[in-house]
Amino acid sequence: MSDISQAESMDLSQRTTAAIREVLAGRTRGSVLLFTGPAVIASIAYMDPGNFATNIQAGAHYGYALLWVVLAANLIAMLFQALSAKLGIATGQNLAEICRDRFPRPIVWFMWIASEVAAMATDLAEFLGGAIGLALLLGMPLIWGMAATAVVTYAILLFERSGFRAMELIIGSLVTLIGACYVLELFIAPVDWSSAAGGMVGLEIPDPTALTIAVGIVGATVMPHALFLHSGLTQHRAGRVNTEQKRTLVRYSNREVIVALAVAGLVNMAMVIMAAAFHLGHSDVAAIETAYHTLTPLLGIGAAAVFLISLIASGISSSVVGTMAGQMIMQGFVGFRIPIWLRRLITMVPAFVAVGIGVNATEALVVSQVILSLVLPIPMIALIIATGRCDLMGEFRNSHATQTVAVAGMVLVLGLNLILLAQIFGVSIPDLA
Q1: Rounded Cα–Cα distance for residues 344 and 153 (Å)
Q2: Contact assessment for residue 199 and residue 11, using Cβ atoms and an 8 Å cutoff
Q3: Which among 66, 179, 254, 330 is placed 20 to 30 Å from 428, CA to CA?
Q4: How far is CA 301 from CA 153, 173, 292, in A?
Q5: Cα–Cα distances in Å, from 340 out to 156, 160, 347, 373?
Q6: What DSSP designation does 280 have?
């Protein structure tokens, strides 16, 4: 078969892998876009409806004061997503598979159950967010918005059969749409930029409620399922590669992580800034529905519609990614898959139950993010251990500086969680502010 006919017989993912291998072999220069995809998919986890809920509450209640939490969480996310991507490239395994092979069996089962709980909490936020956006934009009951979100999500998941590249392009398009919506919103909103700059360096947690929201922001930003997923997205993308080629892949991966998560971080900050901008004189704006209805008279129907479009894109894309991550977690820990429609159905049940019993949708979103934050130390610790092992990573083992910063980030998250648990159980926290 000639090279031309062979190329024509390849699907999009196979052609991408072949082009990457040509670049790694030094035969062509190629485009940086060939290496772009895994971090873009992972970044949608940092712009999901859980972020909308926690960021709206942060901006509505505390103005720009908690912007520093968003910034710190995003920097931690950059580091850990880079470590996850490096793990997949260096070992050819994803994080769940490595935990299954390297950790004691009781710990593996505990990690799997906790990760599945996190995946369900993630899906609750993502599914509800897309449903709320559709219900508000089209004026339909929330339950119908949930049904429509389920159908669209499943339809997109069918593209996974076509290989990794089709999904990367679809999710990348939705990420671009979300980012464009918030760029447009910032031109419309009356932002106090000096106060916003002060909030990024203020290091202030005004009261215990702000602490709960801060922990929710961390849980909504550094996502447990994204840490598992990213290692799986990079493990086979370039096929079998040698050590020198792995170095090249890690360099490209690090650049992609910085760019993709910088965009995600800016979108998150824009959410807080938007909420703070329209919270002036409207301190009750702490729910997504209220935010939408308040935006209409304040900034016009166009701004409100843009807000909902970004929410729908976020809900649908992050729901797709969450389902992909849940499947990877299950297969990695226990070695089996279930049909994608069944997994989608199982993870939708909590959302339908929450709506059926009358739970406030935004409150459910925030609670789901707190659950994620409590589970988050598990994959963070596993990732630090795995990427710090010379026998596993070889020359790609974390440097002492990287390991120290990673441990510091994990300790910060763990400390916030312990303070939150103390608060939940009624233990007073002196000098909180």
Answers
A1: 9
A2: no
A3: 66
A4: 27, 24, 9
A5: 12, 10, 11, 26
A6: T
CATH code given to domain 36-424: 1.20.1740.10
Rounded to a whole number of angstroms, the distance between the first and last alpha carbons of the chain is 71
Counting Cα atoms < 13 Å in the Cβ hemisphere of 294 gives 21
Q: In one letter, which amino acid is 264?
A: A
Residue where the block lists tokens 């609750």: 124
CA 339 to centroid of chain Cα atoms: 23
Both tokens assigned to 321: 């990614």
78-105: burial string, b at 16+ Cβ within 10 Å, e else: bbbbbbbbbbbbbbebbbbbbbbebbee
Torsions phi, psi for 28 (to 5 deg) = -140, 160
Q: Which residue has the tokens 């807000």?
A: 307
Q: Which region holds residue 37: left if phi is over 0, alpha if psi is between -120 and 50, else beta?
A: left
Domain locations in the chain as residue ranges: 36-424
| Cα distances (Å, whole numbers) of residue 414 to 127, 179, 361, 376, 419 | 27, 30, 27, 8, 9
Closest CA to 178 of 133, 241, 112, 128: 133
Which of the 8 DSSP states describes residue 306? Answer: H
Coil vs helix vs strand at 258: helix
- In the numeric block, the tokens 């994990």 are attached to 410
- One-character DSSP codes across 25-93: TTS----GGGG-SHHHHHHGGGGSHHHHHHHHHHHHHHTTTTHHHHHHHHHHHHHHHHHHHHHHHHHSS
Which is nearest to 340 in space by CA: 316, 329, 324?
324
Instruction: Reduce the DSSP state of residue 120 to 3 states and report it.
Output: helix
